[in-house]
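User: what does the whole thing look like in 3D?
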Amino acid sequence: AEMAARLSENRLVSLPLSRIRVIMKSSPEVSSINQDALFLTAKATELFVQYLASYSYKHGRGKEKNALTYTDLSHTAEECETFQFLADILPKKILASKYLKMLEKEKRDGEVGGDDEEEEEEDEAE
Amino acid sequence: MAERPEDLNLPNAVITRIIKEALPDGVNISKEARSAISRAASVFVLYATSCANNFAMKGKRKTLNAGDVLSAMEEMEFQRFMVPLKESLEVYRREQKGKKEARKDKDKKADSEEQDKSREEDNDDDDERMEEEEPNDEEEVDN
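Assistant: Here's the predicted 3D structure for the full assembly of 269 residues, as structure tokens:
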């Protein structure tokens, strides 16, 4: 059990508890945090980082180039329910040129009265 | 209460190390991806805290405790974290207990020798001290 509990460099937790505490206390409704709760939050955050990274890598296209990319992460936020709370801070990216085309198309559709053409799929800027 | 933006961020070096541990050797992590994960981690802390706080309020308590955090994880659908979290907590509690006892012995010795000298040494562990002195009234003790 002890082996499983340890992560990097054999430490029980790597993220600084003091910093985790600052973030937790920035929540207005929180008055005090017991020591164990602070530790667990830090530990859970480490597990979360690992899960987000490994899940995104596994399900993304970045691995075709042996990389974890921003796009992999934003796909995860959009497609996986567990990570949906991150959707706002990990928005999909779109090429400026594509976006302008989309705007033009929407304008044209408005004038003609709408087609049944499918909307262009969003592309990501790398 | 205004925090400076960097205070709500987690240290880059640590985040990077944790990410690397989760991925196969040699995988590149773009700066953008690393930065995004760091932000996600901060958001996770906020979400978890808010969720845990709801459980504390349900129990009419003002102090977040271990049980609240564990309940929050379940609520957020991170059941996969439960076992490793509980195991880590056990180890952590043992370590804290050991530290407390070590301090007691140290203080006992100091009392019988020179009191002032040992007080000075104790001030080095500022962070640890700060954490130990937090109210532990809600602490659950599993025996």
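In plain terms: The first strand of chain B starts at residue 28 and ends at 29. Chain B has six helices and two strands.
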